[in-house]
Amino acid sequence: MFLKGLDELDQKIVELLIKNARMSYSDIGEQVGISRVAVKSRISALEEKGVIEGYTTIVNPQKISGALSCYFDIETEPGALERVAETLAACDMVTQVYRVTGKSRIHVHGVASGQEEMEYFIRNVVDSLEGVVSAECSIILSRIKDVKGLRL
Asked: Which pLDDT value is given to residue 78?
């Protein structure tokens, strides 16, 4: 798993926080066999190192009436990549932008309130971006596996 670079105790603490980031230091300490103070110290050290970047609420857009989640693979002209990525990152509907290897070059995840908003985004944002060679959109039908607590 992705936690192999941590010692065994920190791995256990992070695994517990991934399952429930609201778990108390005392509860974590009971499960890993150390004091609440030691847990707090270890978590603080993981935060300072940047291993733990933050804590958040995870929203499932598929449970919200009509929400639509899509992935885009976008190929750009080499000189347009940065500008296209920055433009997409500034869009409220876009949740992630990744620079990737291969023909696509940019991988984007977006969530829209419904089909009309997604179509508007494709037509008026993606299709109109200067320097885009091609864009492929895939609608997410269902979530089979989604590892929480891991920044890709």
From this structure: 85
DSSP, collapsed to helix, strand or coil, labels residue 110 as: strand
| Cβ atoms 9, 17 nearer than 8 A | no
CB 68 within 8 A of CB 141: no
Region of 90 please: left (phi>0), alpha (psi -120 to 50) or beta: alpha
pLDDT digit string, tens, across residues 97-117:
999 998 879 999 999 998 999
Structure tokens at 105: 């070059």
Rounded CA-CA distance 120/123 in Å is: 5
- What amino acid is encoded at 39 in this protein? V
Collapsing DSSP to helix, strand or coil, 100 comes out as: coil
Q: Cβ distance 100 to 75 under 8 Å?
A: no
Question: What does the DSSP 8-state code read for residue 61?
Answer: G
In angstroms, the Cα distances linking 93 to 22, 54, 55 are 27, 21, 21
**CA dist list (Å): 27 to 36, 48, 87, 118, 146:** 8, 22, 44, 43, 25
Helices (H), the chain: 8-19, 25-32, 36-49, 81-89, 115-121
